[in-house]
């Protein structure tokens, strides 16, 4: 007798547990967002702590890099809290944008959507809005200008102070 096993689409318990260990738990407490797994915190001064937690998750979904810790995404979105403290219009843009995002995501809001693919579908609904463009645009500079994460991408930094690229491997074509 031959037994045939059919592979079903979905997630095994083992895969679920592996994924569960890879994601950090963010706790919203008062005016702070705290990572219990990696021992860092972010205090919100103008925006709600839940708004900041949602911005961190949104940032990770817009520019997903598994090797980049949440701490760096928090640093990248902190600029929105600082801008909101100075500009009521920016605060309104961000808070209303998050409220709309939570409404579109359904029960539990954006943070309650467990699967990245489902969160991406929600983000695609708002990608032409000024809110989304403000967050995405701020991330380009806020995330990728952090020198601490450059080694994770293999970027050595600017080359001018070290003699330029010509003297630092520009003509190195060992890969060819």
TrEMBL record:
PROSITE patterns found in the cross-reference section: TAT (PS51318)
Entries under InterPro entries matching the protein: TAT_signal, TAT_signal_bac_arc
Tree of life domain: Bacteria
Name of the protein this chain belongs to: Twin-arginine translocation signal domain-containing protein
Upper classification of the organism: Bacteria, Pseudomonadati, Pseudomonadota, Alphaproteobacteria, Hyphomicrobiales
